[in-house]
Amino acid sequence: MAKYTCTCCGKEHDEWPALGFIAPDDYAQLPEEKKADETYCELTHDFCTVNHPDQTDRFVRGVLFQKITDHCDTLDYGVWTSLSEKSFKDYYDNFNNPEHEAVYFGWLSNDLADYTFESCIPLNVVCAGDGKRPEFIPHESHDHPFVRDYYNGITKAEAERRIADMLAKTTHG
Ligand SMILES: [Zn+2]
User: Fold this and answer.
1) Cα 73 to averaged position of ligand 1 atoms, centre (Å)
2) What is the pLDDT of residues 125-138, one digit of tens each?
3) Hey, where are the domains in the chain?
């Protein structure tokens, strides 16, 4: 892992990779012949749509910053959220406007490996007008281990374990 000098404490830290998902689970789980059908679904780096016979699901990619209790840095997740048709259109129409500020409502659309999700996690999807991908902020009132960890923080050891797990999966397919 690359190292960098931390502006917060002045010490040298490992540069942590983001835990990224290239697609929302709804898309990733589709059979290959469905993925190949452009009338059925579409995936880019930032947008995904899936046209079911009875409804269209829309997703965008953003970032979620997991606080670490005993470390300066955050563990960053590159994850997807669903958006309503109206929010998706607004985000899409403003995608090339770096000053776009908005807050949308969405549902987390990736099952993170370290949790069990019986129900979806509600999020605020925050476009901060900085030209970056939107930040996802779970609703604090939603009682779930993932939401509690988000607000309370996880340990540096736990973050490093999650990174190691991801790297092991990437290496072994
Ligand atoms: Zn530091």
Assistant:
1) 7
2) 999 999 999 999 99
3) 18-23+61-171
At 64-73, the pLDDT tens digits run: 999 999 999 9
Ligand 1 center to residue 70 CA distance, Å?
10
Give me 55's structure tokens.
């409804």
Q: What is the pLDDT of residue 152?
A: 98
| pTM of the predicted protein model | 0.92
CA of 19 to the centre of ligand 1 (A): 20
Give distance in angstroms: CA of 114 to centre of ligand 1: 25
Ligand 1 ion local residues (Cβ < 5 A): 6, 8-9, 72
